[in-house]
Design a protein that fits this description.
Number of helices: 1
Helix content: 10-25%
Low-confidence stretches: none
Strand order of the largest sheet: 1-3-2
Order of helices and strands: EHEE
GO molecular function: RNA binding
Organism: Quercus suber (Cork oak)
Largest sheet: 3 strands, antiparallel
Number of strands: 3
Mean pLDDT: 91
Domain RRM: 4-35
Shape: globular
Pfam family, one: RRM_1
Radius of gyration: 10 Å
Protein name: Serine/arginine-rich splicing factor rs41
Amino acid sequence: MRPIFCGNVEFDARQSDIERLFRRYGRVERVDMKSGMFFFSYFCYY
């Protein structure tokens, strides 16, 4: 699955915050964080 980009994120945001925020839409498989932005991917069932 392609990673999803999110920008303009607080610099003190943690990976657990991101996973908690987006897990209502599916199982978060991966989070790659940089300063003020991140990419994440959902687990694909097929």
